[in-house]
Design goal:
The complex is a heterodimer of chains A (501) and B (167). Chain A is an all-alpha fold and 501 residues long. Chain A has one domain. Helix content of chain A is 75%, strand content 1%. Chain A is built from 21 helices and 2 strands. Chain A has a two-stranded antiparallel sheet with strand order 1-2. In chain A, helix 4 runs parallel beside helix 16 and helix 14 crosses helix 19. The radius of gyration of chain A is 22 Å and the shape is globular. Chain B has 2 domains: 60 residues; 90 residues, no CATH class. In chain B, strand 1 and strand 2 form a beta hairpin. Chain B starts with a helix and ends with a helix. The chains are: A mainly alpha (501), B mainly alpha (167). At the A-B interface, helix 8, helix 9, helix 17, helix 18 and helix 19 of A face helix 1, strand 2, helix 2, helix 3 and helix 4 of B.
Chain lengths: 501, 167
Amino acid sequence: MEVFSFLADGIFLALQPVNLALILIGVTVGLFIGAMPGLGSVNGVAILLPITFLVPPASAIIFLAAIYYGAMYGGAISSVTLGIPGASTAVATTFDGRPLALQGRASLALVTAALASFVGGTVATVFFTLFAPLLASVALNFGPPEIFALMLLAFATFVGLGGDDIPKTIFSICFGLVLATVGFDTISGAPRLVLFDIQGFVRGIGFIVLAIGVYGIGEMLWTLEQTRGEITTTNPKMTAKGLASDAKEAVQRGWKGTWIGSILGFFVGVLPAAGATPGSLMSYGVAKIISKTPHEYGNGSPDGVAAPEAANNSASTGAMLPMLTLGIPGSPTTAILLGGMVIWGLTPGPRLFLDESEFVWGLIGSFYVSNVAAVLINLAFIPLFVWMLRMPFTILAPLIVVLSIIGGFAASRSMHDLWMIVIFGLGAFFLRKFDYPLAPAVLAIVLGPIAEPTLRQSLLLSSGDPSIFFTRPIAGPITVIAIILILLPALKLLRRNGRVS
Amino acid sequence: MRKGEISLVGVLALFSIYLMWKSAELPIGYIRGQGPGGGFWPFWLSLGMLLSCVIIAWNWSRDKSPASASDEPLMDAFGWRTVMLVGGGVVGFVALIPFVSMYGAVCLFMLYYVRFLGRHSWPLTLGLALMLPFALFFFFEGAMQISMPQGLPFTQPFFDLMYDIIY
């Protein structure tokens, strides 16, 4: 019952005028960002994080979470009307959303996506409300070895389940962790890794510098080079009467995909590093496998739209669970939110539920409010978003650059950091050309300042004996799972070679 | 792509060695009573980066990655032109900030991008290039109380006028 009382307080906090206004603005901005090809929630949150320092932390995270939510809804708009996923999380939505649009049923696809997103988001928020306090109370007993084991698990998930080139993923993780060590050794206080003896590095490299470089400048260059302006729009014909009949059809023909996506998405989203993209792809696959009419998938099945859309919303809420309760982000966007919390002076992790209860429950309350706001704004303004999608990228791109640079300066007040944003942006573009995944580096630079002290404290506790990570009852199993995940790609390779021979 | 991949790995491997050397300025081993030294964590991570580079190079030699098996160029003429013009524009934008102030640099960058790269009309270009710096000024200096770089002294009359408006 205590949970419901906290939740009621949280919803009340989220409905306060300032927070409600931030939710409405955040959802609208998120819908637009999600709808723009090449931009996803992670870009929006990274670029807009510096401007949230104006409001208190509770309102700031409500605003950013609303952007995250809105972007998940918005991704479907460009998947359906342009045939280009607004973000990687909406890739699976194009499989059936685009065929529906080409059959003249864009409105049905968009309504199905909106309703499935709403159900996915709501189911996940209910799960979140039930599981988060439980997990946080367990995690209160964690010491440095347990926390380091969890960090190891987060990185191992990228290696084992990431699907990218493994050595490049490991390089990216190590690179992010090393960047986090630049500046001062937090334990001895000695200057460390002042690269090329440039004094700007004494202040360290903030995660936001890397995040804005990668997701602002780098992503914009990538989109410019990849899309080449060849985009054609399919305009949905939407009327109030048509909307009602589409909603009825969406419920009848998309309910199964919606439920699969809602439940599967949440649990995939909870896994560190998995996030909404694998969640939506996996849900699409499962919905197709258990469907009685799998041949309809890929040809315009509402279930094929509902499953990934419910899943990406559900997973985005799921990804917040380890972030708030354990201090481990479940996706690149939550990694940036976590970094933001540190800047706002909060310590993510189980103590947050005790020390900053109003902050946590305000955020959870905002999930419910944002979800309702997102579905209403989405359905009401789909034609407007489609119209906005016609904004040439030659206007949007310089706006992204300007926001990235000026936002980067607002966060750091340093020209050195602005140059680092540019260098990271250009570097990210070329690294991506050679398939180096960059999300692990962003995750690593956020988690590095937590991972290093916990490793050193653990080794100090055990007088340098690394078996401390295997002998403690909670740290042990987590470390073993992490090691299995790290070895998983090698085991798969050995099995494949065995089959070939 | 093939040459590009191995060249990039070479650069990253050299950078990893540099990081190992730089980390070793602090103790990289275990110090009795104090735990691991300050260089311990970055040194072993840099070694991890170097080993990853070795494996990437080994995979390259066996044509295992898409880039190493590709004879395609890294980018075509359009790609290089885009990166040079846009990337160069971003570098120019940041380089101009200490001279013409943040807002002056925003104005010049918008002029460059919207008019010369986007080929939009002059009214739209001027509208964006002039309105955006004003909007950003009121947001950052007025609402958020964050001062942006003001450039060389010749920009001061503009800032004096604007501060008179907001204060």
